[in-house]
Amino acid sequence: MADNNLLVHPQQGQLVHDVNETNSTLAYVSLKVLALEEGEAYLETLTEQECCIVALTGKITVTEGHHQFNKIGTRQSVFDKRPTDSVYVSAGHQFGIRADSEAKVVLAYAPSTKELPTTFIAAVTNTIEHRGKRANQRLVHNILPDSVDISERLLVVEVYTEGGNWSSYPPHKHDRNQLPVESLLEETYYHEMYPPQGFVFQRVYTDDRSIDETMTVENGDVVLVPSGYHPVAVPDGYRSYYLNVMAGPVKKWQFHNDEAHEWLLTKD
């Protein structure tokens, strides 16, 4: 964990990332990233958490009870820019993952005691959006949006941003439980870059500047957003990918723009 407690670097081995309530300030979002060799397996029993298993790259087989989802996953690199397959598993269930090829898997968690159906989220069901204009354009794959009632609290989305563009911009936040105006959602960003020696800049800041960190983020890093605005800037010549996990008391993404920069939305 970096000194600012918001930037987490990857580790060697099968468990690349393990962000949870014991080593972060997050209460609603936990995250694991697994790097699996072909034939490797992973087993976990969920207690008071729900989980979205994202086949980030490669092929995996996921089992839960009588469910078995064989050789899911659609891409060798996230920069193939095609949606991928995922599996939702609710609290109280055990799941297993077997790597059918070299694979990277993201496990996204939120607190939950509600038993819901284990659900295969096929790549073809991901909605695709193009957001922004000028130097504020990005491509979005919605894996588990708030419009889908598969999960209790979890939201999961992938975002692609080309070099020279900004993302999560103009700056917005979602850290107040004041619906319908704004929702309280913690968030994590799992970042990759192409080419992989690239980097992006991400700032996380609150109105009162009790949090105000600007980070140089490299391939494989995770950025934590417990509260505040969180824009991302991508240098020319590089492409950015990040996977967002969000969760809070209510599964609703209702954000509030930084009023100092909201004028950008009306600029031609």
Keywords for this entry:
RmlC_Cupin_sf, Jelly Rolls, mainly beta, 268 residues, single chain, KduI/IolB_isomerase, RmlC-like_jellyroll, globular, 7-stranded antiparallel sheet
Description:
- This protein has 268 residues and is an all-beta fold.
- Helices cover 0% and strands 49% of the residues.
- The chain contains no helices and 25 strands.
- It has strands at 7-8, 15-19, 30-36, 41-45, 49-57, 60-64, 67-72, 86-89, 94-99, 103-111, 119-121, 127-131, 138-144, 155-161, 166-167, 172-173, 175-178, 182-184, 186-194, 199-205, 212-218, 222-225, 232-233, 239-247, 256-257.
- It is globular, with a radius of gyration of 18 Å.
- The model has no long low-confidence stretch (mean pLDDT 96).
Q: Strand sequence of the main sheet, in spatial order?
A: 1-22-19-24-14-13-12
Strand percentage lies at over 45%
CATH class type:
Mainly Beta
Mean pLDDT: 96
